[in-house]
């Protein structure tokens, strides 16, 4: 957690030559502007301008100048770059020329959600993430194929699991950047992997998740592979999800948090599942798409894991199973926090937990529960009608 003066001292003492100023477009793709280290004082003082008209979703030729203001506390050395002439990265706030926050800066939206929860309700959230992704081989031209790196299954080990060393390389690199993974293993699909993260503040969790995706792609390339965060890269194989774990400092509020998220989940699904293939995953048969919660029940979109419920109103955290890794993690967490706040504010207590296997088509058909949208078109239509979404994002 560096201050600006500490960053400037670090840059001088540690032979830093390049500073990467990182930010995100509306889809959650990380963008990057590199400056020489001697320009860092100006970056802190005035910001560094960039042409926003070329960033998808930011397009506005009439007012194209925006400014990147690096946040000193997010300083991280890129360990795969040379030790001589180091390269560091900082996440940035995006601001207008007059210094006001840019309204399409998704990191800023998340900061505002966190601030509102704490200042208005005394609620401090913590977020944990579990990412699934595939590793594919490259062809002779170095282009990605659809040939999985291995044919291993769930939690298999070497020699069936070929991704063991790649995952270790990813985890070591994360650790060098101050990000500590909780666990990693082979997932159910061929060439499919999972890495899980400890709880942290919402902004730190989102920053770490974004850094993680970048490292995975980088390490895949250095190992002669292609990493895919597509929610459904192989038609007949399991899709890749992003499980989001949510906890807060007032455990007695967890039922209302569950109720608030369930109440708004259909309206925000297009932000949690933003591609056409998202819905192939959601409706593949073994992915939860029923709007309900359950204790240990993986066929509900929200589950309370075993060991987290010593009584009806004492759930310690929830696990949301429906999102996928193609989403903008900042916007996803922002919407979930606002839904949780609304649940607390209106005391939205959910129905009793689902206790049946909702993956069974006949059981699901007879249930009273709603379902998530069946297509991206349907999801977008629900979001466009939503006053809740408009209030937060427009």
Radius of gyration: 21 Å
> Kindly, what is the distance between the CA atoms of the first and last residues, rounded to a whole number of angstroms?
32 Å
Q: Mean pLDDT, as a whole number?
A: 94
Helices and strands, in order, run as HEEHEEEEHEEHEEHEEHHEEEHHHH
Sketch the major β-sheet: 9 strands, mixed
Globally, the shape reads: globular
Descriptive account of the structure:
- The chain is an alpha+beta fold.
- 34% of the residues lie in helices and 24% in strands.
- The strands form two sheets. Strands 7, 8, 9, 10, 11, 12, 13, 14 and 15 form a nine-stranded mixed β-sheet that branches. Strands 1, 2, 3, 4, 5 and 6 form a six-stranded mixed β-sheet that branches.
- Strand 9 and strand 10 form a beta hairpin.
- Helix 6 crosses helix 10.
- The longest helix is centred in the middle third of the chain and has 21 residues.
- It is globular and about 65 Å long.
């Amino acid at each position: 957690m560096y201050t600006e003066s500490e960053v400037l001292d670090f840059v001088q003492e540690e032979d830093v030559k390049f500073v990467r100023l990182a930010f995100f477009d509306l889809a959650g793709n990380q963008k990057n502007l590199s400056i020489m280290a001697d320009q860092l004082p100006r970056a802190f003082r005035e910001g560094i301008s960039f042409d926003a008209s070329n960033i998808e979703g930011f397009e506005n030729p009439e007012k194209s100048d925006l400014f990147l203001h690096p946040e000193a506390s997010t300083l991280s050395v890129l360990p795969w770059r040379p030790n001589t002439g180091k390269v560091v990265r900082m996440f940035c706030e995006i601001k207008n020329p007059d210094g006001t926050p840019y309204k399409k800066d998704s990191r800023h939206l998340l900061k505002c959600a966190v601030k509102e929860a704490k200042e208005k309700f005394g609620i401090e959230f913590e977020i944990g993430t579990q990412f699934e992704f595939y590793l594919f081989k490259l062809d002779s031209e170095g282009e990605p194929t659809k040939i999985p790196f291995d044919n291993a299954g769930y939690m298999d080990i070497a020699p069936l699991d070929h991704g063991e060393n790649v995952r270790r390389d990813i985890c070591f690199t994360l650790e060098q950047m101050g990000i500590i993974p909780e666990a990693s293993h082979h997932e159910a699909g061929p060439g499919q992997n999972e890495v899980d993260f400890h709880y942290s503040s919402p902004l730190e969790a989102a920053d770490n998740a974004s850094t993680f995706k970048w490292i995975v792609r980088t390490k895949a390339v250095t190992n002669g592979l292609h990493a895919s965060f597509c929610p459904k890269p192989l038609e007949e194989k399991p899709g890749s999800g992003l499980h989001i774990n949510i906890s807060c400092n007032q455990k007695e509020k967890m039922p209302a948090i569950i109720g608030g998220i369930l109440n708004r989940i259909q309206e925000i699904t297009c932000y949690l599942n933003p591609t056409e293939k998202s819905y192939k995953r959601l409706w593949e048969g073994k992915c939860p798409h029923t709007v309900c919660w359950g204790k240990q029940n993986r066929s509900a979109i929200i589950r309370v894991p075993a060991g987290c419920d010593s009584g009806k109103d004492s759930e310690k955290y929830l696990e949301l199973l429906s999102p996928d890794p193609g989403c903008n993690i900042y916007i996803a967490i922002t919407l979930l926090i606002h839904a949780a706040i609304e649940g607390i504010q209106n005391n939205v207590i959910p129905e009793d937990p689902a206790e049946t296997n909702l993956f069974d088509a006949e059981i699901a058909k007879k249930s009273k529960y709603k379902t998530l949208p069946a297509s991206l078109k349907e999801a977008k239509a629900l979001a466009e009608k939503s006053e809740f979404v408009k209030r937060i994002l427009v």
